[in-house]
């Protein structure tokens, strides 16, 4: 176990918070994009479609790298058992609390107000179960994945800690990072294609997709983050701007956009999406880390406030976006005006609710996993 207190990584805190807060413009822009969602405007905006796709193409890959970095850092600070307890409390309690308090009311709203489930009474028992899994986990999926990655990390980090002296001075290049992630994602693609061919019904199961496929896809990024703490040269690689990666972002995003609009789900849409998302994740990892290291690596009370508020804002913004889309957006006929009005409403109400929850100890515990001091 490390005896030195880790240096505060202000820029990583900031990037992680901003990535979570990007969930608000992502979901509000979904209303006005060409992507099929619960609520869509009569006409789609090409600009907001590109904006929405850009956020979606890289956000969670970079998020899980940072999560792996901080998870391993905390693993070295605590005993393994205490680390497991603290991490599961911080992630698992908000996940479990948000299901009855947020996503269940959200599902009932959509079922009774929108036309998303017109034939609910005719669903089989399994269809109802599978639909409820999708809807109740909903935008909380990343918390469930973090819980599962924490359980994997409990064993994995113990192995990494025993190899710390061997790997600390190891030299790593971008080509090694790219090759390692490419092989991991290719293995994921092969597994998915085999399951689609041999067990097509299983691949339509909500828990199968989240608990197995999503976890396996993001696990390499989580491990990469842990290695960035372990290997000094790897972190140095991330925070140094690489012009070729910055330029490659444009090509990778064009490929992502093209695949979203011109590939079919029965073809290779999802496998190509995985490979392209990996490339976008690598490119944006360098952009986010190198930019954040230079611009955000200092203490700021405002940024600290956003860091502390980001999880709560993420939890409550989704139903607020749906409420905006159902009851307010139809009255606004300009897509860009509707988008900015949605941001003001969702962010505004979210921060008001955040301030209210800070003053109620039981809500602070349920939505942060922390007891009030």
What tags apply to this protein structure?
373 residues, mainly alpha, globular
Structure description:
- By secondary structure, the chain is mainly α.
- It has one domain (10-368).
- The protein has helices at 10-21, 23-31, 46-77, 80-113, 125-137, 141-162, 164-167, 174-198, 206-230, 232-239, 243-262, 269-295, 301-327, 335-358, 361-368.
- The radius of gyration is 21 Å and the shape is globular.
- The chain starts with 9 loop residues before the first helix and ends in a 5-residue tail after the last helix.
- Mean pLDDT is 93; it is low at 1-5.
| Backbone structural class | mainly alpha
- Poorly predicted regions are 1-5
SS strand fraction: under 5%
Distance between the termini: 27 Å
Give the helices and strands as they follow along the chain. HHHHHHHHHHHHHHH
Give a short account of the largest sheet.
none
The total of beta strands comes to 0
The average pLDDT score comes to: 93
Which range best describes the helical content: under 10%, 10-25%, 25-40%, 40-55%, 55-70% or over 70%? over 70%
Radius of gyration, CA atoms, in whole angstroms = 21 Å
Shape: globular
Report the total helices.
15
Please indicate the count of domains. 1
Helix/strand layout:
Blueprint: H1 10-21, H2 23-31, H3 46-77, H4 80-113, H5 125-137, H6 141-162, H7 164-167, H8 174-198, H9 206-230, H10 232-239, H11 243-262, H12 269-295, H13 301-327, H14 335-358, H15 361-368
Give a quick summary of the entry.
The protein is 78% helix and 0% strand.
């Amino acid at each position: 176990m490390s005896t030195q207190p880790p240096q505060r990584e202000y820029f990583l805190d900031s990037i992680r918070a901003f990535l979570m807060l990007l969930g608000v413009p992502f979901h509000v822009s979904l209303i006005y994009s060409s992507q099929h969602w619960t609520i869509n405007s009569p006409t789609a905006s090409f600009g907001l479609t590109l904006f929405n796709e850009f956020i979606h193409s890289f956000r969670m890959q970079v998020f899980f790298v940072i999560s792996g970095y901080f998870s391993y850092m905390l693993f070295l600070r605590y005993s393994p058992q205490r680390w497991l307890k603290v991490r599961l409390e911080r992630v698992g309690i908000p996940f479990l609390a948000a299901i009855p308090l947020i996503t269940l009311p959200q599902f009932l709203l959509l079922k009774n107000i929108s036309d998303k489930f017109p034939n609910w009474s005719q669903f089989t028992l399994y269809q109802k179960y599978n639909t409820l899994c999708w809807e109740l986990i909903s935008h909380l999926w990343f918390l469930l994945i973090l819980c599962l990655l924490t359980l994997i990390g409990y064993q994995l980090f113990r192995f990494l800690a025993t190899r710390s002296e061997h790997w600390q001075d190891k030299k790593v290049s971008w080509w090694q990072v790219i090759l390692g992630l490419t092989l991991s994602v290719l293995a994921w693609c092969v597994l998915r294609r085999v399951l689609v061919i041999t067990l097509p019904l299983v691949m339509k199961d909500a828990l199968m997709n989240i608990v197995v496929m999503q976890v396996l896809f993001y696990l390499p990024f989580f491990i990469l983050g842990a290695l960035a703490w372990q290997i000094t040269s790897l972190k140095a690689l991330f925070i140094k701007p690489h012009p070729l990666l910055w330029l490659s972002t444009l090509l990778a995003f064009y490929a992502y956009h093209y695949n979203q609009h011109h590939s079919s789900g029965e073809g290779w849409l999802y496998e190509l999406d995985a490979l392209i998302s990996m490339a976008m994740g690598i490119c944006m990892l360098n952009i986010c880390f190198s930019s954040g290291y230079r611009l955000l690596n200092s203490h700021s009370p405002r940024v600290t406030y956003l860091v502390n508020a980001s999880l709560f804002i993420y939890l409550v913004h989704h139903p607020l976006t749906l409420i905006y889309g159902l009851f307010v957006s139809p009255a606004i006929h300009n897509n860009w005006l509707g988008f900015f009005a949605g941001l003001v409403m969702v962010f505004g109400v979210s921060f008001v609710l955040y301030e209210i929850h800070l003053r109620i100890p039981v809500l602070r515990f349920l939505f942060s996993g922390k007891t009030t001091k």
